[in-house]
Design a protein that fits this description.
Elements lengths: L17 H15 L8 H15 L4 H10 L1 H12 L10 H22 L3 E6 L5 H16 L7 E7 L2 H9 L1 E3 L8 H7 E3 L7 E4 L1 H6 E5 L14 E4 L8 H14 L5 E4 L12 E5 L2 E4 L2
Parallel strand pairs: 1-2, 1-7, 2-6, 7-8
Antiparallel strand pairs: 3-5, 4-5, 8-10, 9-10
Enzyme class: transferase
Function: Methylation of the membrane-bound methyl-accepting chemotaxis proteins (MCP) to form gamma-glutamyl methyl ester residues in MCP.
Pfam families: CheR (PF01739), CheR_N (PF03705)
Length: 288
């Protein structure tokens, strides 16, 4: 049994003892694939202290016992607490430029000939800014290229229940819209009134294009693909090398030859996977 350490921490909280941190580190790695080094100890302590208060637990040992006896009941909340959901509309603009200028016109032309569907996956969608930005450029491309009849959808998944709730609601403070151009903001974001003053909601057309679902990337995936593109940006920075290798092999299995994988600005497939070739800034194409 993991014993609780009730030694006060800075600020009058409860300290995270060595045994508890070892247990949490192993648990998070096993269930989430996230490697927590010793340098993350204070971060884990600070963030989980709020979770302990919410659950009415007096020490970290009690929280570890909860995870030990009923891991699934708390797994999503734990993952939300230890991961950082930092995102924005049109983050890494060069990815969207590539979609608009090259990829979407090519895909839509191919789909029109073949009758196939178009699918994009936002893996680790956080609070939804990424998939809704993708939906904007997709909706515009469908109109521009006269392809309204094509079956086109974006799958948005994340592990965090709190982030997914925001993504499903599609309601954002006005200051979060900074990455959206004035033209797109006028067209795709509906300004709130009354109790929603200071907020904006995504246009119903974007909701039609985006499906938001919970998913742990380390567990079984219900979808079988294929996807034309997978966006997995600023997600694998939390994973160690073996976990990254497994994940990218699974992504490759869901992409056809020529399918595209988009990573975050500090991420790379170098030395991890040879199923892809680098074709641009953190943009990879599957070989075949």
């Amino acid at each position: 049994m993991v014993q609780g350490d009730a030694v006060p921490a800075d600020g009058g909280g409860v300290a995270l003892g060595d045994a508890e941190f070892r247990f949490l580190r192993d648990f998070v790695y096993e269930h989430c694939g996230i490697a927590l080094g010793e340098h993350k100890r204070q971060l884990v302590q600070g963030r989980l202290a709020r979770r302990l208060r919410a659950l009415g637990l007096r020490h970290f040992g009690a929280y570890c016992e909860l995870l030990r006896h009923d891991p699934q009941s708390e797994l999503d909340n734990l993952a939300s607490v230890i991961s950082t959901n930092v995102t924005s509309f049109f983050r890494e603009q060069h990815h969207y430029d590539l979609l608009v200028d090259e990829l979407l016109p090519q895909w839509l032309q191919q789909k029109r000939r073949s009758g196939d569907r178009l699918r994009i996956w936002s893996a680790g969608c956080s609070t939804g800014e990424e998939p809704y930005a993708l939906a904007m450029v997709l909706a515009e491309a469908l109109e521009r290229h006269g392809a309204a009849g094509i079956d086109a959808k974006i799958l948005a998944t994340d592990l965090s229940p709190q982030a997914l709730e925001t993504a499903r609601n599609g309601v954002y403070p006005l200051e979060r819209l900074a990455g959206i151009s004035d033209e797109r903001r006028c067209r795709w974001m509906l300004r709130g009134a009354g109790e929603y003053e200071g907020f904006a909601c995504v246009h119903p057309r974007l909701r039609e294009l985006v499906t938001v679902q919970p998913l742990n990337l380390l567990h079984e995936w219900p979808m079988r693909g294929p996807f034309d593109a997978i966006f997995c940006r600023n997600v694998v920075i939390y994973f160690d090398q073996p976990t990254k290798q497994r994940l990218f092999r699974r992504y490759a299995a869901l992409l056809p030859a020529g399918g595209h994988l988009f990573l975050g600005h500090s991420e790379s497939l170098h030395g991890i996977n040879d199923d892809f070739e680098l074709i641009g800034r953190t943009v990879y194409r599957k070989l075949g």
